[in-house]
Amino acid sequence: MRAALLSAADAVPAYVEHPEPVATGRHEVVVDVLAAALHHLTRSRATGAHYSSAGTFPRVPGVDAVVRDPSGRLRYVVLDDTDRGTFAERTVIDERRSVVLPDDVDPVEIAAAMNPGMSSWIALRRRIDFVAGQRVLVVGATGAAGSMAVQVAKHLGASRVIAAGRNAERLGQLPALGADETCGLDDLARAADVDVVLDYLWGEPAAAGMVAILTARTDRRAPLTWVQIGSIAGATAPVPSVALRSAKLQIVGSGIGSLGPDEILPELPALAAAVRDGAVALPFREVPLADVATAWVQDSAERVVLVP
Predict the structure, then answer these.
(1) Predicted confidence (pLDDT) per residue in 121-159, tens digit
(2) At what angle do helices 268-276 and 107-122 cross, to 10 degrees?
(3) Has residue 87 been placed in a domain?
């Protein structure tokens, strides 16, 4: 079969002949890969930069995909850290880390949207006690996951969603996706009275924004839950101690390790249905797996989905 093979962290995947995968575990099956997205987790896991990656080489990249199992059913699958990824014609999956999809879904659309959509969906559904009617601020809303977080928050019942980011052009597109208000990262005090913050940036923007929001809150005793999801702006944030003492602030993280597969997988069918029905969406571009080397080094405003 053909697959993308990454030989080192600083290399570009090569499209090569590769041995057929073999299922060896009790719950493992060989599946046909229909569509696999190229996203941040894919890259960081493949290169060893992600905290959940062992960084072994050579490896076939790809951490999730829409696949067809031996019985003909469509599945969305999430792989553990492995050198047998989804950027291949076939791969091995553990059926316990997958969910069966309806036959009427578009595999490419599902592959594009599930990973970025999952970050906010799981955070709101499983990591905190979010209830319909609460107000949500998305920090870093101009990225793929952030723009989906705006849609997910609305879909799950947020009464007001404020989208914050640096890119003015992309911010201008977010009201059409459900944002009630937009603001720059230097103006987060406008979102002072939200109930939940979904933070994709961390670093200095989080620390500065946290102080601005807490200082401007109408009632500092009103609970504020800050959910740390991504760290594009920095791995550490200089949060002053007074921020934790002067307000009813709770900071939690949402990511691999804070939740197990048994908590994540039950949420995926509803997210897939929301994608299928158009409630949440992400622009995507279908690319042949044979062009993986070019796709790996190109920047794209659309989510690249590789198709064997």
Answers:
(1) 999 999 999 999 999 999 999 999 999 999 999 999 999
(2) 130
(3) yes
